[in-house]
Amino acid sequence: MTLGIDIGGTNLCMGLVKDGKAGKQISVPSFQPDDTLEETLDYLSSNIEGIITPDTSKIGIGVPSVLDIDKGIIYDAVNIPSWKEVPLKEYLEKRFSIPVAINNDANCFALGAYATFPDNAKPEVLVGITLGTGVGMGIVDRGVLFCGANGGSGELGSLPYRDGIIEEYCAKKFFISHELEGHKAAKDAENGDPKALAVFDEFGRTLGELLNVVLLAYDPSHIIIGGGIAKAWPLFRKSTESTLKELFPYHKALERLVIQPLCCDDVQLIGASLL
Questions:
Q1: Is the pTM of this model over 0.85?
Q2: Is it the case that residue 112 has pLDDT exceeding 90?
Q3: Which of 29, 124, 220, 255 is most buried, judging by how many CB atoms fall within 10 Å of its CB?
Q4: CATH 3.30.420.40 spans which residues of the chain?
C-alpha cells in the first residue's frame, strides 16, 4: 500500500493506492498563503496521520515546484510562500519511518496518465498537461518519466507571452481576467451564451499556441489534458485543434497525434504512488 499525495494550489489531496488503484481518499484545503513553514508541515503531517495505515509502505508526493529529486528538497514552491528550501523527504521519513519519494506534481500527472493505458497500447511519448490554478506539464518517454535536472522539465507555462507568461492565458487567471468563474462560464457556454463561448474560443486558441511549442519541443504521440478546466474540453477543442493545424508545420505528425482529456480525480495520486 502506498499513500499518494497531491499538493495543489487549492486542495491537498491524499489517497491510498494498491495495485495501481486508489482506495480511500481525502481532500482538504491547501496551505494558506501566510502559513509559516512549521504550520504547513504540521498541517500536512496531521492529514497524513488521518489516512495512513499500518500497512502503508511508502509515501509518494507531487509538489508544484522544482526540487532535488534524490534528496527530496523542494525549492521555491509555487503558491506556497514559506517553502523556499524544504527538506520534505527527510522530514517525513523521520516522522513516519517509511520511504518517501517526491516529484513535480505535473510529472505525477503524466506518470498517472501513462498508467491508465493498457500494457499493449502504451503511448510512445506522452505529454501530460494540467490546466488549473496554473499550467503544469510532464513527459513520459517510452515508459520513463523525463524529469530534467531539477524535476522542472516541461515548465512551458512560464514562457513569455503577450504582457506576461502563457499560463496567465491558459489557466484559472484567464477566466478571472474576464471576470468569469470557470465552472459558471462553462455552464453559460453550454447554454449558448455568446460571451462565454467567445472566452472559451480564445482560451482554445492560446492553448493551441502552447501545444505548438510542445510538439516542436517533445514530438509526443499523445497529449493528455487534465486539471479542472479539462472538463470543459468540448468547449475549446475546436479552436485548439484549428490553431494547432495553422501553426505546426509537420502535418503528418498531427495525423498520428492523439489529444484527449483525462478528468479522473485520482490520476495524480496514482502517479505519485508510482514514484
A1: yes
A2: yes
A3: 220
A4: 2-107+268-273, 120-263
